[in-house]
Each structure stands twice: as structure tokens, then as C-alpha cells.
Amino acid sequence: MTEVLTLAFNRDPVWGWAFPDEERRASQHRVFWRLFVDGAMDHDWIRMTADGGAVALWLPPGCPEMPAEAEARVPAVLSELLGDAQAEVVLEVFERFAAARPSDPHYYLSLLGTRPDHRGKGLGMGLVAANLAAIDATGMPAYLESTNPANVDRYRRAGFEPVGEFALPLDGPPVTTMWRDPQD
After folding, report:
1. 160-to-10, 135, 183 alpha-carbon distances in Å
2. Burial classification of residue 120, based on how many CB atoms lie within 10 Å of its CB (0-12 exposed, 13-18 middle, 19 or more buried)
3. Under DSSP, is residue 75 helix (H, G, I), strand (E, B) or coil?
4. HSE-up of 91 (CA within 13 Å, CB side)?
């Protein structure tokens, strides 16, 4: 799962910008995304296609992205991976993501990634559709942030609507926030 996310986000506008050294990005992302995969394991809402081409990390209402002890390690991990100055920038990015997230109970699509060699086959959106069917059965809404403007229309087709946008520090790329009410 970590490898799928590493490959999927290598050229992402936000996560490529946050990890600017292209030569080291893949190894940095493996460490970084592993924190999120490990954290999501506690909630039993990780889904991966049978061929290993796409992965979705969902969090049920009220669940953190990672346990408190793992979250406490994030600043040191980022400093080791990126150096202190860029680690501070990425920590500010996290603060902006957290500030944008609605307080109303919802399922949260923390990460959705498709391996580049599997893109265009509908694998990622197939995972989203299957998860949304299960979420709809609970009567709960869903939320996500799109770090790539190219994906906003894909999420719209799944029933999400843009509800806002926030900028990243140092003129970083924008992030679109999206909400989906439960469907009947």
C-alpha cells in the first residue's frame, strides 16, 4: 500500500512541491506515506484493488489519521527527511489541512492513489464508489481534499462538491476541499 501511494503521489502538485528533491522523493515518500498507512490500519477502512493498482485510506467519523504517538514523531521524521526548514513548511501544510476539515461527523478520504501504470482504468474511482456505497448505508457524509486539480471533476462525478479551497505556504499549489452528502 505504501508503495502504491509513493508511486501515485510522486508527481502530485502538492506532495511533489512539499518534497522538492526529485531524486530523493520516492525514498522520502515511502517513509512519509507509511505513517499514514500504519495509522489507517487501526480503523479497518483501507481498501486496495486485487491487482494492487490502487489504494484508498478512509477514516471513520472522529478517527485520527494516526495514533497520537505516531503523530508526535512526525516533526522529527520530516526534519530527518527534509531538513528543518522544509519540515516546518510541511508541518504548516498539515495545519492548513486540519483547519480546513469540517467539524461535522463524516467519513474522510485521507488518501487515494493509483499506480501510474494502472491509471485510466477506473481502479481508484471504483474503490471510491465501493466505499461510498458502504458509507451511504451508514447515512453519513464524506469529505476529501483534492491536491490535484485534475481530479476535482472525477470526485464530482462520485457526488462530491467543492466547498472551499486553501493555499499552501510560500505560494504552494492550492488544495480543493470537497463534501458529499449521503445518497439514498
Report:
1. 24, 13, 11
2. exposed
3. helix
4. 17
In whole angstroms, give the CA distance from residue 80 to residue 56: 27
Non-local CB neighbours of 38 within 8 Å, separated by 6+ positions: 66, 70
**Taking the model in full, what pTM does it have?**
0.93
36-78 per-position pLDDT tens digit:
999 888 888 999 999 999 999 999 999 998 888 889 999 999 9
Sheet holding 46-48, edge to edge: 46-48, 54-59, 107-114, 142-146, 172-180, 161-168
3-state secondary structure 121-181: CCHHHHHHHHHHHHHHHHCCCEEEEECCHHHHHHHHHCCCEEEEEEEECCCEEEEEEEEEC
Task: Identify the CA nearest to 48 among candidates 121, 110, 113.
Answer: 113
Query: Which regions of the chain are under pLDDT 50?
Result: none
Q: Which helix (H) or strand (E) holds 40?
A: helix 22-41
